[in-house]
Amino acid sequence: MIDEMSTTENKSVEITKGINGLDKVVLREINGSTAEVYLYGGHVTSWKNEHGEELLFVSSKSIFKPPKAIRGGIPICFPQFSNMGPLEAHGFARNRVWTIDTDPPPFPSNTTNRVFVDLLLKPTEDDLKIWPHSFEYRLRVTLGPGGDLMLTSRIRNTNTDGKPFSFTFAYHTYFSVSDISEVRVEGLETLDYLDNMKNRERYTEQGDAITFESEVDRIYLSTPTKIAILDHEKKRTFVIRKDGLPDAVVWNPWDKKAKAMADFGDDEYKHMLCVEAAAIEKPVTLKPGEEWKVRQELSAVPSSYCSGQLDPNKVLQSS
Q: What residue numbers bound the domain in which 44 lies?
């Protein structure tokens, strides 16, 4: 389904061709913010504010050619996060072609002054061979009047054999930052995390914020519904609000891993940070007919300096 605001005149929702001829949907909000979603992967590849500034990171080396997943933006990890299971890393949703959902169930969100597109993914015969479960995954990508970007996912078990299935999940969001060494993440202090660089051993966060001086790859557990990413140089704060997603992954590959990735520039790690709303520690289990619904809302707000530092509490309280 495409929002009723879509008309030929304002082109608030437009289906067009992207890189390498891949189909994409462009959302244009009345105040000037935009988002782009590729049907390949149900993948948001661009989110710009009303000034035309890109808020997501996509690698200049990203291939945009199936079956390789797009490097950057917001890949969807389903039905498996990372290599924590029998499937390929991060599952298969991010490298399948989704369709535009012409008959979505009603979403309870208020759609006034919002532009959105509904996408649908169902398993192919090949998918059923590697993950023998029937499902419907509905994704709504919404651009709000303030330029906020919301992703709402609804995953339903449509098995006819009476069997439940379990999965893990993440919105693998790559944020664009000015300089990773000038960035801090607020909202995860004192929490436990699994360190992917140390065989997922469990630790407790000791710092009053997460800062970056080397590779970081952690799964934070039982996280709050709101997390802030403070970019000192750009005087910008990203606020992540999430509903139904208890975990949060924080990842930056740093220099060695960046050089080892063919679809990632050697120095691009300096200008990106992944903070991912996720459900990993406790896999989600759905019985036939059951539906799981979650959402992530992203906003970018200007931050003011306070004694040379950004004041994250002010940002979190006001947002």
A: 13-318
The whole-model pTM stands at 0.91
The structure tokens 């800062």 sit at: 211
Percent of the chain past pLDDT 90, that is, above it, reads 83
- CA distance readout (Å), 42 to 77, 139, 168: 11, 8, 17
Our answer to whether residue 172 is catalytic in this structure is: yes
Provide the CATH number for the domain around residue 20.
2.70.98.10
Rounded CA Rg of the chain: 19
One of 172, 268, 281, 297 is an active-site residue; which one?
A: 172
Q: What is the pLDDT of residues 177-233, one digit of tens each?
A: 999 999 999 999 999 999 999 999 999 999 999 999 999 999 999 999 999 999 999
**Which residue among the candidates 29, 276, 281, 297 is catalytic per the annotation?**
276
d(CA 38, CA 68): 14
Closest to 111 in 3D by CA, of 242, 45, 25, 12: 12
Please confirm, yes or no, whether 276 is among the known catalytic residues. yes
Would residue 8 count as lying in a domain? no
If you average pLDDT over residues 46-54, what whole number do you get?
97
4 belongs to a structural domain: no
